[in-house]
Every structure is written in C-alpha cells, then in structure tokens.
Amino acid sequence: MITTRKTKTHWWYRVTVFFVSICASTTRFFVTAAVNNLPSNEVFLTSICDCLKEDPKHGICTSWARRNGYGTMPYWMTRDLTNMAHAFDLDRLLRPEPSGCNLTSSDASAFNADLKYWDTSHVTNFEFMFRKAKSFDGKGLKF
User: Fold this and answer.
1) How close are the terminal C-alpha atoms of the chain, in Å?
2) Is residue 83 part of a domain?
3) In a domain, 42, yes or no
4) What does the pLDDT look like over 4-23, one tens digit per residue?
5) Spatial distance between the Cα atoms of 89 and 18, rounded to a whole number of angstroms
6) How far apart are the C-alpha atoms of 17 and 137, rounded to whole Å?
7) What is the C-alpha separation between 68 and 106, in angstroms, rounded?
C-alpha cells in the first residue's frame, strides 16, 4: 500500500481531535508546556498568586495558563529569574494584594506542587521562599 502525505495528515488529525476531545471531557484539562519564559521576578510573584487562586495545592492552573502562555506552575520556565525570595512564604500568600496573594488560610497552607522542572541555576536569592509552607515537601526541587 502506498501512503501519501494526505493520508498521514488525515490520520494524525483524527487522532489529535480524538485525544483533545477525551482530555477536554475529563474534569481537568492539563496544560503542561510553557510557551513563554517568565520575564521578570515581579511577573513570577504575580503569577504565583494568580495560579494559586485557581489551584492552591498543585499549581495546575489550566485556565490561567491558557490565557498567558506560561503553562501550569510545575512546568514554568524559570531560567531567567534571579530572585525567588518569599515566593511561597505563607505570610505573603495571606497578605492582601498588591503585595500579597490574598489567599484563604486553608488555600495558602495547602501548597505542595512538584517543581522539579524549574531551572533555578540563575537564582541568587531564595530567602524565606517556603517559610511556613506547612504542606510543601520540596519534591524534586533542586537548589
């Protein structure tokens, strides 16, 4: 049998549509891959707040991720960041905006995302990054 490019494309299209349909029908649609690098330390801190408002425990903030191209928290491209101080500090997560996230106490203390894909090689300040983060076990994160 001779396979043409059109047949291959048609086959791939059908599989892709089927897969997207299945994913969209599940309770969570996981956006994993980040398209954009987090451009600054300030955007990083704001993004943490926005993402945790959607999924405070794992950072799988799919709606937020689809709008901005940064992906869900476990897959953020963090290689250009230099300062992660107080990022998940419980006091910062509880503090009202704009300097904090304004999360509830139960949401703020639930955080335990797997951050093993984060590139922290350029970060020079980790001061109090996870201070009072009771649930965070540091799975996969390398400093």
Assistant:
1) 54
2) yes
3) yes
4) 555 444 444 444 433 443 44
5) 42
6) 37
7) 26
Residue 88 token pair = 């998940």
Alpha-carbon gap, residue 56 to 126, rounded angstroms: 21
Decide if 46 is inside a domain. Answer: yes
Q: How many CB atoms lie within 10 A of CB 127?
A: 12
Tokens of 74: 């476990």
Give the domain extent around 57: 30-109
Instruction: Return the closest-CA partner of residue 131 out of 85, 84, 89.
Output: 89
Q: Show the 3-state SS of the chain.
A: CCCCHHHHHHHHHHHHHHHHHHHHHCCCCCCCCCCCECCCHHHHHHHHHHHHHHCCCCCCCHHHHHHHCCCCHHHCECCCCCECCCCCCHHHHHCCCCCCCCCCHHHHHCCCCCCCCCCCCCCCECCCCCCCCCCCCCCCCCC
Tally of domains within the chain = 1
Say if 142 falls within a structural domain. Answer: no
Total residue length of the chain: 143
pLDDT tens by residue, 18-45: 344 344 444 444 556 667 889 999 999 9
